[in-house]
Design the sequence.
């Protein structure tokens, strides 16, 4: 890790880690509750679900039944590039644009925090903007304004909450990968409860109540962050000013690691493009082609979004145990290899869906357990890549640009999500087995490329990183 030893209050620990990790854990938990609660509703809000097929926002706007400022203009802009799209294809493009830009703005939010605001102020600003965005979504007419506030707010919040985890640990602390895995579990506590609460409210009582609950979650996250300040490390900007290192030059070794990281991110784009389908085409599949009857009661299809975080709860202690066991024997895979494994597992997760959809009609229904099996493998790939990427940024980034480089990691997610939105437009144009096979091949290809290039990548980033 490139930062100086953390100046963190000592005392009680959290799962063997600094107490500040619990503050960041629960802050991120509430922010992700807000984000995933909103995305659990978003695609079905735009397309209409099986319970309310005529309640599609896009259909209502096109027929003049409601007004959303700028939405018809956005539709015309998208179709001027891609041609005429049906409701599902148009919703997929809008979903892709939204989730993409959510991960582009962290680059600029990170730069602003590193140079002007510091990480703590940026988190407050981002959280307030996101809460406003969620509440704006409660009004159909403010749909695009709500998305805009969420995009800008996430840019200020996301890179600066993540980098504060690294500030809790001294350089070279072997607990860092496991710290980010615990932090990632916090993300998914929020992601687990949000579709159950926000999705259920939205699907059963009206989408505005789902968005309102997501906004309330963001407010709770900010309150929790405020009361936990004393357990956090000083901002990187404040430490750099105190030690007169805010303008320290980047060394050739650091440049080499940064360039290697950028090359790695190019392959990771494919991972995120496929991963983006979980809230997009896979949610459509879960709504239209999965049977959600549980002991005679039909659960809302938005509950599918809770399966991924549920799997993360199961996998986090197992992987932490495995990696600690491997570390004691000096056999823990370096970050590059973990990320190659992640891409490979993501691809293999589509095999159950290819099998179960082969040779059946487009209107079939399968047990939701097939989606649970696929998502479990999907999540294993995610755990080998996403928290490891966050940890890698903190390990290699010079302290004065740590938030900006974290924003660079999110730029790869930006490109992947945009690509994922465009890929989703093919969902209704291809058979289910063909679409899922495309996801399989893309993910395996990315994993293979990283395996093939592992030596130069490890040389650049660091063999043991």
Sequence:
């Amino acid at each position: 890790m490139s930062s100086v030893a953390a100046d963190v209050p000592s005392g009680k620990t959290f799962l063997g880690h600094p107490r500040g990790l619990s503050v960041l854990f629960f802050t991120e938990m509430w922010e992700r509750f807000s984000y995933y609660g909103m995305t659990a509703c978003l695609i079905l809000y735009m397309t209409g679900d099986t319970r309310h097929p005529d309640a599609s926002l896009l259909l209502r706007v096109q027929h003049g039944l409601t007004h959303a400022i700028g939405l018809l203009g956005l539709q015309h802009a998208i179709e001027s590039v891609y041609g005429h799209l049906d409701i599902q294809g148009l919703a997929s493009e809008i979903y892709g644009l939204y989730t993409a830009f959510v991960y582009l703005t962290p680059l600029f939010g990170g730069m602003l925090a590193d140079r002007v605001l510091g990480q703590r102020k940026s988190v407050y600003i981002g959280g307030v903007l996101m809460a406003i965005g969620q509440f704006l979504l409660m009004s159909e007419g403010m749909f695009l304004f709500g998305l805009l506030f969420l995009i800008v707010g996430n840019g200020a919040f996301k890179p600066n909450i993540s980098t504060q985890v690294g500030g809790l640990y001294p350089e070279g602390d072997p607990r860092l990968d496991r710290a980010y895995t615990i932090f990632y579990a916090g993300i998914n506590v929020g992601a687990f409860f949000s579709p159950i609460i926000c999705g259920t409210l939205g699907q059963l009582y009206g989408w505005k109540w789902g968005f309102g609950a997501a906004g309330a979650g963001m407010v709770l996250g900010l309150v929790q962050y405020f009361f936990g300040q004393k357990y956090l490390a000083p901002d990187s900007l404040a430490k750099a000013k105190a030690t007169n290192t805010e303008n320290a030059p980047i060394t050739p070794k650091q440049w080499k690691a940064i360039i290697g990281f950028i090359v790695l991110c190019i392959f990771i784009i494919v991972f995120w493009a496929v991963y983006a389908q979980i809230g997009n085409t896979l949610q459509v599949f879960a709504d239209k082609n999965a049977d959600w009857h549980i002991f005679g009661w039909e659960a809302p299809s938005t509950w599918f979004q809770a399966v991924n975080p549920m799997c993360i709860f199961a996998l986090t202690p197992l992987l932490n145990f495995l990696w600690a066991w491997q570390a004691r024997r000096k056999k823990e895979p370096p970050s590059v290899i973990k990320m190659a494994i992640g891409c490979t597992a993501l691809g293999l997760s589509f095999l159950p869906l290819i099998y179960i959809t082969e040779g059946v009609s487009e209107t079939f229904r399968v047990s939701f357990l097939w989606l649970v099996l696929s998502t479990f493998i999907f999540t294993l790939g995610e755990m080998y890549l996403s928290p490891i990427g966050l940890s890698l940024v903190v390990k290699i980034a010079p302290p004065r640009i740590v938030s900006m480089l974290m924003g660079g990691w999110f730029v790869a997610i930006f490109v992947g999500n945009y690509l994922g939105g465009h890929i989703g437009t093919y969902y209704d144009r291809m058979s289910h087995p063909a679409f899922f096979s495309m996801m399989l091949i893309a993910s395996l290809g990315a994993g293979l490329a990283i395996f093939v290039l592992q030596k130069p990548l490890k040389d650049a980033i660091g063999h043991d990183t």
In short: The chain has one domain: 21-461.
